[in-house]
Amino acid sequence: MSSQSSHQPITVTHEGGVKFAAQVRTHRVVVDQPVRGGGEDSAPTPLELLGASLGTCVALYVQQYCDSRGLPYAGMSVEVEQLGATNPRFARRHRHAAMPHNALSKADPCAA
Fold this sequence. Notes:
single chain; alpha+beta; two-stranded antiparallel sheet; 5 strands
């Protein structure tokens, strides 16, 4: 990662209603609320995006761990489940990484 990109702020702008757009470097990320929340359901909610961010972070580090040990990771998936959704701001999030069936067939001390 370049030092320049790490110092650029993420800018969030109001798009109308309950829709917002975040500018992250050269990427535009939109969030909205479901219809029952006053939105158009045109994009994930901010909390869904938080779960996606957590899941992709876990997936990246699992992939890097496997790659550094010569373990296969093609087909790996990570699921993030929000628990306690009565108040999602305080919900717990459960993460589960699913590895391909042959990923642990190689000798690795962490596979036990």
